[in-house]
Amino acid sequence: MEKKPFVTLEQLQEIEKTYPTPFHIYDEKGFMENARKVNEAFAWNKGFREYFAVKATPNPFIIQKLKEVGCGVDCSSETELMIAEKLGFHGDEIMYSSNETPEGEFRYCNALGGIINLDDITLIEDMEAECGIPETVCCRYNPGGVYEVCNGIMDNPGDAKYGMTPNQIVDAFKILKEKGVKHFGVHAFLASNTVTNDYYPMLARDIFKLAVDLKNECGVHIAFVNLSGGVGIPYTPEQEPNDIMAIGEGVRQVYEEILVPEGMDDVAIYTEMGRFMMGPYGALVTKAVHEKHIYKEYIGVDACAVNLMRPAMYNAYHHITVMGKEDAPANHEYDIVGSLCENNDKFCVDRRLPKIEKGDFIYIHDTGAHGFAMGYNYNGRLKSAELLLKEDGSVELIRRAETPEDYFATFDFSDIMK
Ligand SMILES: *Cc1c(COP(=O)(O)O)cnc(C)c1O
Fold it and tell me: How far is the CA of 74 from the centre of ligand 1 (A)?
């Protein structure tokens, strides 16, 4: 399957007159339709809510859009909670899934009425000291070992720092119940970027069984199961996209099988997807600015790993389209590279593409989640603007590009950079 950009060359030429490259651009129509479909896929569950994982795309303009279709927010830090507060999220619209939680953040979450998801049994004390015992508390589960989904996708919870062991979660529920918690949630995130419709249903089977055991053993009310994130997207053109309707139906069947016979038909299903909500609906647009012919063929672009770190960090594949050359033969082999003094600053290696000329727009697909957000400032390079391609075809600036003043702002206690 060919991957198609959601903007045309003509649109980019127009946009560039106001917003020079590089920039991330997001497709409002695409992510809003997808968000509505997620709600539809789980409409069978009365309490369903998607808590958008703020860390994936921490842009308040985008999160505000997702709020319009009923999404809550999954936050993991003070600044993410600040975004939630500014946008008017409150109460059970906020999930706070932190780990190694800094002091003060439970208090902040609790003041907003958000739901605290405890990563560890020892955090019960910290939470109680900061904000007392809330009526509703969630606990994060880690079964250990290796987690394998049917088609071979595997992750390694036994090596992951998150969550409580099976025995700890039982103890945590008993302690919390004794301290007065009325409603409980169970959360687990066991595999990342799963491109299969089986992951959520499999995970649901495991957590639902655990929820039944916890109800029976601790005598508690399980109010929700939080399937968290991990639903993936097809970064390569060969991968088959997940079908969220099939995923929702798969979870429904397991719900009927395991929870309903136990009288647990009021359990709400929560999700905390980031990648699936936004990944395909963002792109990094950059321009070819140099070519270099040494032992390999290099194309230098005006973006670098500061703007998109995934290829440098995990060798992640991001599909690339040379705009205007979609139908030209891919008869050249390139490394497309940024300007960092860091040899892993490559958006692709040995990629077969049409001949690239200086000035060509290079469109890097699927940067809508964990893209801009992971950026850093190595080599003093600055982060780009973010643009929103609106449903009516117009373009709105939703974050300006960084300036040197931003980069030097943390010296503002002194005159040294004035
Ligand atoms: C990162 C994260 C998510 C989102 O993960 P995706 O892979 O983007 O779906 C959800 N919940 C928690 C607790 C996370 O840390």
Answer: 8
- 102 HSE (CA, 13 A, CB side): 6
Question: 109-144: per-residue pLDDT in tens?
Answer: 999 999 999 999 999 999 999 999 999 999 999 999
Q: What does residue 376 show for φ and ψ, rounded to 5 degrees?
A: -140, -170
Task: Decide: 28 in ligand 1 pocket, CB within 6 A.
Answer: no
Q: Are 5 and 283 in contact (CB under 8 A)?
A: yes
Question: Going by DSSP bridges, is the β-strand pair 183-187/297-301 parallel, antiparallel, or unpaired?
Answer: unpaired
User: With a 6 A CB cut-off, is 114 part of the ligand 1 pocket?
Assistant: no
The answer to whether the CB of 399 is under 6 A from ligand 1 is no
The answer for residues whose C-beta is within 8 angstroms of residue 175's C-beta and 6 or more apart is 121, 124
- Measured in Å, residue 368 CA sits from the centre of ligand 1 at 14
Global confidence as pTM = 0.97
> Would you say the CB of residue 54 lies under 6 angstroms from ligand 1?
no
Over range 303-307, report the average pLDDT.
Answer: 98
Res 7 pLDDT > 70: yes
